[in-house]
Amino acid sequence: MVRAPCCDKMGLKKGPWTPEEDQILISYIQKHGHDNWRALPKQAGLLRCGKSCRLRWINYLRPDIKRGNFTLEEEETIIRLHQMLGNRWSAIAAKLSGRTDNDIKNVWHTHLKRRLKQYQTKPDNIKKNPKIKPKIQSEPSIVCQSSDEIPSSSSEASSITDTSDHREFDNIKAANMVDSSECFPDIDESFWSDSLSIPPLNFEAVSDEYQPQIPSFPIDHIVDARQSLDDDSMEFWYDVFINAGGDGDFIVQF
DNA sequence: AAGAGGTCCAACCGCCGGACA
DNA sequence: GTGTCCGGCGGTTGGACCTCT
């Protein structure tokens, strides 16, 4: 089956939006809302496809959009949420009011990712710049949850078997998540030298990009997790991980 | 002053899943 | 059950802007 294009692109404008187009879109949505993005540009008199209108509204024109630089707190939140959720920008954005998934994606790729890389190769830098705390770990991200943290949904969480279920799980998780630091306890400076350089579980072969690095939770938790996984379940989660493209979330129940 | 290279971000693209006929 | 529409998502990119030499 070949999907029909989202809209007939013939004669439709692409590229940057003009202030006039913005104004037309804003006043139309204020008047009529945006029930049907596909029909909206035609009704509003815009030579754009519905997708383009939606994106412009969501990422730029919405009245509740927060512009300007990300604060330190926001950056830390992004880092921590990314650690837990992976590249699920919309889920991360949902936790940062006024920021869009596009904004977060951009700030991650332009600032945070590079900064993380820097600190992971030179952990000593952590002392020089307090912006990054030593609980950071890059992908593959592991969502650690103690079973009593999420009493109402642990069974739902454990039933997640593929990436398509992650969105549902996002909601469950988001509803229960108060502070990710509960999940990732603070560690002291000695952790850098004392703790393991073993990657969590046995996934070092999964991604070339993955390097043994800063564990995001104490070693005894990792050991416990390893002990609790028999070969079959290890193989199962390995498959899940591979199917998720090597950087999907990986759930460990303690 | 200028141009080469790097950075940033708005916008596009393709894919996916839910809803519905 | 199947096909189609539509909204939403993450990955990617083009070009404007900035910095360095």
TrEMBL record:
HTH myb-type domain mapped to chain residues: 9-61, 62-116
Is Nucleus one of the keywords UniProt gives this record? yes
Bias kind Low complexity: ranges: 146-162
What is an example of a GO molecular function annotated in this UniProt entry?
DNA binding
The UniProt annotation puts the region (Disordered) at: 124-165
InterPro entries xref list? Homeodomain-like_sf, Myb_dom, Myb_TF_plants, SANT/Myb
Among CDD domains, the record links this protein to: SANT
Q: Does the keyword Repeat apply?
A: yes
**Limits of the Myb-like domain:** 9-61, 62-112
Which SUPFAM superfamilies does this entry report, sorted A to Z? Homeodomain-like
Question: What main location does UniProt list?
Answer: nucleus
Q: Which GO terms describe its cellular component?
A: nucleus
Keywords, in A-Z order: DNA-binding, Nucleus, Repeat
Gene3D superfamilies reported for this sequence: Homeodomain-like
UniProt subcellular location: Nucleus
Q: What protein name is recorded for this chain?
A: Myb-related protein Myb4
Q: Which organism is it from?
A: Hibiscus syriacus
